[in-house]
Amino acid sequence: MTFDYPGYPLKFIQRDWCRDSSDHISTYIYKFYSPITTYHYIVRAEYHKHDVFAIKFYCKKDRKSEYKYSKIVNRGDLGNIIMSCAKVIPLLLGDYPRASFSFAASRSIDSSNNTIEDAPDTQRFRMYKYMIPIKFGFRTFNHIAYDIISSYLLHNRNSESNQSDIENMFKNSYTNLYSLTL
After folding, report:
1. Dihedral angle of Cα 83, 85, 113, 145, to the nearest 10 degrees
2. Boundaries of every domain in the chain
3. What secondary structure does DSSP assign to 49-78, as a single string?
């Protein structure tokens, strides 16, 4: 596999404040367009306590679906889509220089044959695990892969929070991440 994905330009849309009692503080919302898939995509950088962001994306056409993070567009271009999402990291590091970043790779849903991908080691997770270390290296971040839940953490070496604090916060915030059923 080669790594030649430049990604697409991001456009900042807005910052939404979270008003519940969770550890989720606010969300930075961006969008970009893929000329290969001919779709717009939404990137959500959800800011949590412990100075950590959860990076999520979905195809804008699926925005009303409860499965928007799991649907497969199936038009290719995944490398550029993932690199476009990763472009939020240097943008947010400007304002949050000690921030850490996580990617939880949703299980893919294939509605044509009514199947759901198993939670461990999803297709998207394998892409994250390959591409993120190449894109960001190891100077600023420790890279932690959680194969069993298909999640990836870039733990900032300058963070004031330890890895265990971040893990516990995510366990409490995303309790139903893999309870997906059709």
Report:
1. 80
2. 11-173
3. TTTEEEEEEEEGGGTT-TTTTTB---SS-H
| Cα distance between residue 41 and residue 59, in whole Å | 4
Strand residue runs (E) in the chain = 11-17, 24-34, 39-48, 52-59, 100-104, 109-110, 115-116, 141-146, 151-156
Q: Residue 164 corresponds to which amino acid?
A: S
pTM score, two decimals? 0.88
Over the stretch 93-134, which tens digit does the pLDDT of each residue have? 999 999 999 988 777 776 667 777 777 778 888 888 988 999
Query: How many residues does this entry show for the chain?
Result: 182
Q: What amino acid occupies position 76?
A: G
